[in-house]
């Protein structure tokens, strides 16, 4: 079946809404610490709450909703995301805001893997990398527009108004999906326990491990980018928001290039090149980002490399488990947010113990380890059952 661009667009619109829901706290960090009177580390735990709920909820709710028609499922997921953001806008304090983030994460946990699986189903194998990249392009646009705009708006109208706007956009996404996407039958039912059997393949497990390490590295720095840039170049306020736009622009280009490179050369080469590139950029960040211009260059390259990772990893997972594409993508979504969730804890500990300049160096070590996991995964072999004599 030929993949129709309008369908891709509405799926990307949905991932933009859930991506902004997940990532916007990085842009709101100064407003949250000021308005809630909490530390940067405590505010970052709003990322952790969202991410851990997502990681746990993705396979759980994928099993619960396994028989749902896909369009209905996608619309419902975006409505739940909207409700969670609305609750965050109305939350009177830190604890209730944490709970609202959990509700938001449930909707996002259902939407993202389902959208990826629908995109894969509605396109031919030779264009699957680009199709998945386009859907995940919504996440990169969230970093280009959603997070920086949230940062700018929070400085004038407060973080509650930003969450309210994200809620409204989630509802818009739900409406667009309902109007444009055709009905898509549910895949064959799979029990919750069976959803984890695909991870017994060491090659799948390696890709999931690389996803966790990559996201842990990226968000350990991204979540705390305000204190990092303050330490390297004395950058604050609106300038940080503008640099987040630059990072997001690099991410958008990287997402497209990652999909095209995967379709042309397969997943292995692009993955190793990208992990190597991220390692170098992060290691050099404290040395290069000492001026606004230097920070702009390094953030653009960092975004370019970081957002090139998703297409080849997802392509490889689908390649390894074609009959269970939705399952492995659901597990990969959990791996993404497990890494994001751990980043709040690891990044907060490094920030408190070693200061912001140590964050990029620790992240570089993690991405180097991710590259080693990719290599080990490709060398793994699945044991074949012995032939009966």
Query: Which class of secondary structure composition applies to the elements?
Result: mainly alpha
Span of the ends, CA to CA: 43 Å
Number of E-state strands? 0
CATH superfamily of the largest domain: MFS general substrate transporter like domains
Q: Hey, roughly how much beta strand do the residues contain?
A: under 5%
Q: How does the major sheet shape up?
A: none
Structure description:
By secondary structure, this protein is mainly alpha-helical. It has two domains: 1-189, MFS general substrate transporter like domains (Growth Hormone, Chain: A), CATH 1.20.1250; 190-381, MFS general substrate transporter like domains (Growth Hormone, Chain: A), CATH 1.20.1250.20. The protein has 15 helices and no strands. Helix 1 runs antiparallel to helix 2 and helix 2 (40-64) packs across helix 4 (94-121). The termini are far apart. The model is unreliable at 384-389 (pLDDT under 50).
């Amino acid at each position: 079946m030929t993949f129709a661009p309008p369908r891709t667009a509405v799926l990307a619109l949905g991932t933009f809404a859930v991506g902004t829901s997940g990532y916007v706290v990085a842009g709101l960090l100064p407003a949250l610490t000021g308005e809630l009177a909490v530390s940067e580390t405590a505010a970052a735990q709003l990322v952790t709450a969202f991410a851990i709920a997502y990681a746990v909820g993705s396979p759980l709710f994928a099993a619960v909703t396994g028989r749902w028609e896909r369009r209905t499922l996608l619309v419902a997921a975006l409505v739940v995301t909207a409700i969670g953001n609305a609750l965050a806008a109305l939350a009177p304090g830190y604890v209730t805001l944490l709970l609202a983030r959990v509700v938001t994460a449930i909707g996002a946990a259902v939407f993202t893997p389902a959208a990826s699986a629908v995109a894969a189903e509605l396109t031919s194998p030779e264009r699957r990398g680009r199709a998945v990249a386009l859907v995940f392009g919504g996440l990169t646009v969230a970093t280009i527009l959603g997070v920086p705009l949230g940062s700018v708006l929070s400085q004038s109208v407060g973080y509650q108004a930003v969450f309210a706007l994200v809620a409204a956009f989630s509802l818009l996404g739900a409406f667009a999906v309902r109007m444009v996407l055709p009905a898509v039958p549910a895949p064959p039912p799979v029990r919750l326990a069976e959803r984890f059997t695909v991870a017994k393949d060491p090659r799948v497990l390696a890709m999931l491990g690389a996803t966790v390490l990559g996201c842990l590295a990226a968000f350990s720095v991204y979540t705390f980018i305000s204190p990092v840039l303050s330490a390297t170049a004395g950058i604050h306020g609106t300038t940080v928001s503008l640099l987040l736009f630059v990072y997001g622009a690099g991410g958008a280009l990287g997402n497209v290039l990652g999909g095209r490179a995967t379709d042309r050369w397969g997943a292995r080469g692009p993955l190793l090149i990208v992990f190597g590139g991220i390692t170098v950029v992060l290691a050099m960040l404290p040395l290069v980002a000492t001026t606004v211009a230097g920070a702009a260059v390094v953030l653009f390259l960092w975004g370019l490399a970081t957002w090139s990772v998703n297409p080849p990893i997802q392509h490889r997972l689908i390649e390894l488990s074609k009959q269970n594409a939705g399952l492995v993508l659901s597990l990969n979504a959990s791996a993404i947010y497990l890494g994001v969730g751990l980043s709040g804890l690891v990044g907060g500990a490094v920030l408190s113990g070693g200061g912001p300049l140590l964050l990029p160096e620790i992240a570089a070590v993690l991405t180097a380890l991710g590259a080693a996991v990719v290599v080990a995964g490709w060398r793994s072999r699945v044991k074949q059952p012995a032939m009966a004599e």
